Amino acid sequence: MNYIEVNFSIKMAEATEINMDSVREIIMAELAMLNFESFVNTKQGLQAYIQEVDFNQKELSALYLFENPDFTIEFGITKIEQQNWNAEWEKNFESIEVNGRCVVRAPFHQEKDVEFDIVIEPKMSFGTGHHETTHQMIAELLAVDVSGKRVLDIGCGTGVLAILACMKGASSITAIDIDEWAYENTLENVRKNKCSQIIVKKGGAALLKNSSYDVILANINRNILVNDMEAYVKTMSSGSKIAFSGFYTSDISHIDTHARSLGLKLLRQSEKNNWAALVYQMS
């Protein structure tokens, strides 16, 4: 499986009121709708990655963001062979720390003295902790008691949330992703972190039939969350908790309305650079 790297160079207009980070967020939101999977911030702008079979240069060039007067964007395209991906990530990947309790790092980083030290092989899958939504979900999971609980990580990416749930004492953990690369990467990271009780599955919400969970972690884009939320809720019982992320603050009202219609009660919400996370409990 080969990937396409698109390297975006962003130049801000002199009179604009928005900043580079905001532009990166706009680009990532648009690219996610075109099936781009991972993103890396650069000094010049952003690198984005998509499977070669999903890449459509005409769709990319037609995005409205190239007409925005507040900034100009140029991009270059590079084909990346699968076997070269680790080297590409190693050039950019840095460890992150969340709330002084959890570190997410690659095998080539030095181990740190924290409560939860998670080693992630930085391959082509979402969920290294660098993106705001994964960082938020880690923070939310740190605040939730999962000891002895049944946990679902849906849209698991690297498996980082499932691994943290394992380290926090969850009795059973299921990690699901529809992407083959994410599935394989999660299996590798589960082994690397010695979390043999995590069950990893390839697929989507259809796999949840006849399942029951106490805590659900869903870090997926808005459209999938809304489409599959009912399937998630059917696995919950009174007192079960579910955390959503993967969408902008402007999407909160839409997500919240749908969640409440399914009997979920909002416990709290957080925001980070215009990205949002919502935590609910089943009534």
Please provide a written account of the structure.
The chain has 283 residues and is of the alpha/beta class. The chain has 2 domains: 3-88, 2-Layer Sandwich (Alpha-Beta Plaits), CATH 3.30.70; 132-282, Vaccinia Virus protein VP39 (Rossmann fold), CATH 3.40.50. The chain is 28% helix and 31% strand. The chain contains 8 helices and 14 strands. The strands form 3 sheets. Strands 10-9-8-11-12-14-13 form a 7-stranded mixed beta sheet, with helices on both faces. Strand 5 and strand 6 form a beta hairpin. Helix 4 (132-143) runs parallel beside helix 5 (160-167). It is globular, with a radius of gyration of 19 Å. It starts with a strand and ends with a strand. 39% of the residues are buried. The model has no long low-confidence stretch (mean pLDDT 89).
Concise overview:
The protein is of the alpha/beta class. The protein has helices at 20-32, 57-61, 85-90, 132-143, 160-167, 180-192, 222-233, 252-261, and strands at 3-12, 38-41, 45-51, 71-80, 96-98, 102-105, 116-119, 150-154, 172-177, 198-202, 215-219, 241-248, 264-272, 275-282. It has two domains: 3-88, Alpha-Beta Plaits (2-Layer Sandwich), CATH 3.30.70; 132-282, Vaccinia Virus protein VP39 (Rossmann fold, 3-Layer(aba) Sandwich).
